[in-house]
Every structure is written in structure tokens, then in C-alpha cells.
Amino acid sequence: MTQNALKDLRILPKIRDSLSYLYVEHCRIDQEAKAIAVHDANGKAPVPCASLAVLMLGPGTSITHAAVNVLADNGCLVVWTGEAGIRFYAQGMGETRSAKNMLLQAKLMADSASRLQIVKRMYQMRFRKALHESLTLQQVRGMEGARVRDAYALASLETGVAWAGRSYRRGQWDFADPVNRALSCANSCLYGIYHAAIVSAGFSPALGFIHTGKMLSFVYDIADLYKIEITVPVAFKEVANGLSGLESRVRHSCRDAFYMGQLLKRIIPDIQFALGIRHQRDTLAGSEFDTDEDMPGGWWDPILSEVPGGENAAEEKEGASENGSDDP
Which residues contact 156 (CB under 8 A, 6 or more apart)? Predict the structure, then answer.
């Protein structure tokens, strides 16, 4: 892929058309042509990074500068994680260069009325039915708690896996029971996919609506839409199938579930629906959220909201004086 081609990011595969994720550990990654290759004890495996959504790097992984460069050029998010993908350490940059979605997200989150509306819409998406307007946020949260509790109980009944409640403490991984380890592993895969999609589409992972105070709050908001559908069944099923290689089997099962559920095709529409962006797009046309990605970023102005950037204001002022057009 040439440097000129990279100027038009629309030629890159859409997130909905990508492979979901690849988790690797104890290996070396380098560039191979316009892709990457993974080297481990079993040999070399080429990876078509142009169609990969997120690459998760586990412990014992080394990666060359050239490999990171080609991954970034192809819009693949690189995430550095702990063992089994459980802990999150760092991330690369997504493929968009526009801040319009993040600006809109910040505007909606900062306004209490719009934030409450979005929170209720997110809960409504989980229930997949309309919620009565008279319900308070506390009542809706109680309904959600009951829904999650019933889902765990049903999964336990269907698989025969004992369930004593959700319990996970970072740093005490080995003390958690198998089903809680499986759930955490499955959820980390889900977070990785949504994190990649959120960054790729130009949103902020930190600006959550239901969740707050964490750098992945918005990731948790969106990922919670599908835990009951995907990660809970996967975790209980794999524990029921035995404990040998549990975390690895959970990751592979999640990848299959993501594909079967067409998750990558649903992520961006789900985010747009949750935030009401399609409705907002017409009303915000021509505003600071409608920035041309090919042009330099604008300058914020307290009166005009935004003025064109990429120009030297001092030179513009001097030119205006010489032409006699600097009237107050």
C-alpha cells in the first residue's frame, strides 16, 4: 500500500468486514511485505493485517517498529495485554483522523439531559423492548441486575456448572473459580473488539455514559449489550467441557461466536443508535462536528465555534492592513 493511497482512509476495509481479533503470546512479530508474520516455536505464520480489527499482544511478545507501522497503516488496533488478555496496558491508534465523533460524544455526555436519555436507551437495547417513561434510573438498574442474575442462573442450569456469583479480583487470578476465570477471559475478548471499533470510528473509550471514571468506560457501556448473548454462554459451555486449556478454548470459542453472531457488522450501528447520531447528523451539519478529514484542524472560537485552521493569523492580519481592509 503506497503512502498516497493512505491519504484516503476510505479504501481500508470497514470494521464490519474485518476479522475480529488475534491474540498472541511468547512470539516475535515482524513485517512481511505489506503484512506481518508471527514467529514462535511452531514456525512462521503470515497475518493479513489489512483485514484484522485488533491484534492483542500477550506476555513474552516482541514486535518490530516496521510491524507496528504496517499495522497502523492498515487500521489494525494494537493492544498490549496481560496473560490471557485479561489486563490492559496500552493501545495504538485507530484509522480515523477526524475528531467529530469524539466531540459529539463529549457534548452528549456533558449534558445531563442527553446523557440520561442515552443511558436509558442503552438499557432499552439490553432488554430489547421499550421501557416505560415513568421508570426511574434506579428502577431500570434494578431490572438490569435481575436480568443478569437470571441469565447466570439459566446458564448454570443448562450446563450443570455450579454458580456462586460473579467474583474477580485483579492480581488474584488463580484464586477465582473456573467459571469466573472463563467469564473474565471471554469479556476481555469482547472488550478488545469493542475497543478497536470505538477507536476506529473516532470515539473515546473513556467517555462513558452508564460507566464513568475509567479509561475504558465507553467500552464497558457498549460491550455490556452483548455479554448475556455471547460471553456468558461461551464461558459456561467451555467450563462444562473441561478445565484443560480453558482460557485458550474460551478465546477460540469467542472468536467463533463473534463470527456467527456477525458482531463486527453490528458494532458501529449499535453505537450510532445508542448515541442517536443518525438523528443528530442533520441538525449538526455545518458545525464543528462536520470537519473535512482532508483539511487541517480548525481553531476553536467562542463566538463562531470554529474558524479555519492551517493559516498563519499574523500573516493574515498583516496582509489585511496592507490592503486597507482591517476596519474594526
Answer: 162, 163, 236
**Strand 43-47, strand 35-40: pairing:** antiparallel
User: End-to-end distance of the chain based on CA atoms, in angstroms?
Assistant: 51
43, three cell numbers: 514456525
Task: Tell me the per-residue pLDDT of 174-231, one tens digit each, with 9 for 90 and over.
Answer: 667 899 999 998 998 888 878 877 877 788 999 999 999 998 899 999 999 999 999 9
Grid cell of 267 as nine digits:
458494532
Buried b (16+ CB within 10 A) or exposed e, 55-77: bbbbeebebeeebbebbbbbbbb
Answer for the pair 185, 251: CB distance below 8 angstroms, yes or no: yes
pLDDT digits (tens, 9 = 90+) for 239-297: 999 999 998 899 889 988 988 888 877 888 899 999 998 644 433 334 444 445 555 56
Query: How many other CB atoms are found less than 10 A from the CB of residue 201?
Result: 19
Strand, coil or helix: 266: helix
Q: Which of 237, 209, 248, 249 is nearest to 123 (CA)?
A: 209
Cell numbers for 169 = 479480583
Question: For the whole model, what pTM was predicted?
Answer: 0.68
Q: Which amino acid is at 301?
A: D
Beta-carbon neighbour count of residue 156 at 10 Å?
Answer: 18
